[in-house]
Design a protein that fits this description.
Largest interface: A-B, 27 and 28 residues
Low-confidence stretches of chain A: none
Number of helices of chain B: 0
Oligomer: heterodimer
Radius of gyration of chain B: 14 Å
Distance between the termini of chain B: 41 Å
Strand content of chain A: over 45%
Order of helices and strands of chain B: EEEEEEEEEEE
Structural class of chain A: mainly beta
Low-confidence stretches of chain B: none
Largest sheet of chain B: 6 strands, mixed
Largest sheet of chain A: 7 strands, mixed
Number of helices of chain A: 0
Strand content of chain B: over 45%
Shape of chain B: globular
Mean pLDDT of chain B: 94
Shape of chain A: globular
Amino acid sequence: DVKVTQSSRYLVKRTGEKVFLECVQDMDHENMFWYRQDPGLGLRLIYFSYDVKMKEKGDIPEGYSVSREKKERFSLILESASTNQTSMYLCASSYWAAGGGEQCFGPGTRLTVL
Amino acid sequence: KQEVTQIPAALSVPEGENLVLNCSFTDSAIYNLQWFRQDPGKGLTSLLLIQSSQREQTSGRLNASLDKSSGRSTLYIAASQPGDSATYLCAVRSMNYGGSQGNLIFGKGTKLSVKP
């Protein structure tokens, strides 16, 4: 089974801090994704990557950056955390396939910014 | 722009009942459609993936159908159990969003409660 792990289940940070959220997958998937999930808004795509050192903006990239130095690891960075970035953050990965492979999700990180 | 709608937003049924969850999408140009389950405070678990060329997929008590031309998918759960209580999310991989891999566009989910 594909396993996607995220570095923390719960995280509390202060406004202005730099925050790193780490995601690791163990199935050699090419594609990796970062979403945030908020009540009433559903899941929204922040950034995605189809290959090492490659990144593309999703629907809501403002205030975030990403890093993919190794195939199995995709990091989400909040350069200067703000209270409106309090949310559930979900990482996902999938194999490369024409039309996209099945996406598998990690357990999520609940981030609170005070 | 692709939009995905799930109705109803919440559903409560007695144990043992067969039930259908609905998903509709506005643009039929899709690669595939994926159904997920999410327990409170947890990540998403993939249930079924239906390719655009397929009509249905089955896994145990779950059966998902796809009618691409009408922009509809249903998730059928047979003989529901209290352990099926969760939020069920539908997501389509649109040809017009995300390039050759087509990124997922999610509905807001149906919250299912199965009463013992």
